[in-house]
Amino acid sequence: MKLFGPLLALFIVFLLLLDYARFGRNMRRVFWLELILFCAGAVFVLMPEWAQALANLFGVGRGVDFIVYPLLIWLVHESIVSRYNRWEDGLQRADLVRQLALDNARRAKPE
Amino acid sequence: MQPAQRVAILMPVYNEGERLRTTLLRLRELAATVGGVHVFLVDDGSRVPISLDALPRSTASFDLSLLRHIVNLGQGAALETARLAALMFAAEFDAYVTMDSDGQHLPEDLPQFLAALKSGADVVFGNRFAGESNTPTGRKLLLRMARLFERVVTGLSLSDAHNGYRAFNRTALEHVRIKQNRMAHATEIKQRVAHARVLKVAEVPVSIRYSQETLAKGQTSLGAVQILRDLVDGFVFGGTRK
């Protein structure tokens, strides 16, 4: 844990800097949301007894199961929904672009 | 009145210049011998839009419609646009042929497709392994694997996977609505043909001419991974449904 803690903190700082550069000034709320979520996650990793106490409260055997499994379900769900949205957006965008192309079709001039 | 034309060519194009013009000129030369050709050319958001002035003019046996996607969507989407344009066109055609614009597909192979359709086939796929193609070894291996994969996925046992040179009669073309915007459309077309169950399939030998330029612009092995991802999305989210 002695080495893992600083490494995790470094990783979080790296991701935050990356996203800060990506989102820019207009997306500060995303930055703060990420900061809060990452720090909350880090607390449970660095203080496993806290996760264990919470798990005991809900009748789950291990703290890590209590934290990781719901998180995994949520991530898989988000990933599928996001892929579905991208697929639908792609179809709708193609329909729109296609309709414009069909409406503006031009014929070659005669020789 | 428009002259009667037997063959509709569905041709997507992206960032092609001289090779496109050469392909169209060769088609125009050949047009009279196959009873007339109408090219439905779809510019899939090329960086420099294709101008009608740069393309061959129409003749008694050759005509061309130019459609433009304002953004790049992918070859599948461009083919679907060409398919709809051809189906909505005032006249019906005896054959609807999908062909690349970069000169890899030889217009001289066209009569073989038409003969196969005339013999009773509804869909005709080109087979580059039976013709005199200069297919690179790496691509041959990839295509052999793709062939096995497609046999499992579509149930169609074809000699050549992902060959863009194909011909359809009108009934068959109405069956192959393309929802895959990118390169997975080749598998999707075969899925639709197989699902229709009533379409008679044939293969004809074609000679595909690869050059350094077309190979550089064409599919890579990583492209195969993207095709797999697109197929999974299509399967999960309804890409194979009407």
Question: Can you characterise this structure?
Answer:
The complex is a heterodimer of chains A (111) and B (242). Chain A is built from four helices and one strand; from the N terminus they run H-H-H-H-E. Chain A is mainly α and 111 residues long. The radius of gyration of chain A is 24 Å and the shape is elongated. Chain B has 242 residues and is of the alpha/beta class. Chain B has helices at residues 18-31, 75-88, 110-118, 137-154, 170-175, 185-196, 212-217, 221-237, and strands at residues 7-13, 37-44, 62-69, 95-98, 123-127, 166-168, 201-205. The interface between A and B is medium-sized, with 21 and 30 residues.
How do you describe this structure in short?
The complex is a heterodimer of chains A (111) and B (242). Chain A is an all-alpha fold and 111 residues long.
Structural key phrases:
heterodimer; A: 111 residues; 4 helices; 2% strand; elongated; B: alpha/beta; 7-stranded mixed beta sheet; 7 strands; 17% strand
Per-chain topology:
The complex is a heterodimer of chains A (111) and B (242).
Chain A: H1 4-23, H2 28-46, H3 48-57, H4 63-103, E1 106-107
Helix pairs in contact in A: 1-2, 2-3, 3-4
Chain B: E1 7-13, H1 18-31, E2 37-44, E3 62-69, H2 75-88, E4 95-98, H3 110-118, E5 123-127, H4 137-154, E6 166-168, H5 170-175, H6 185-196, E7 201-205, H7 212-217, H8 221-237
Parallel strand pairs in B: 1-2, 1-4, 2-3, 5-7
Antiparallel strand pairs in B: 4-6, 5-6
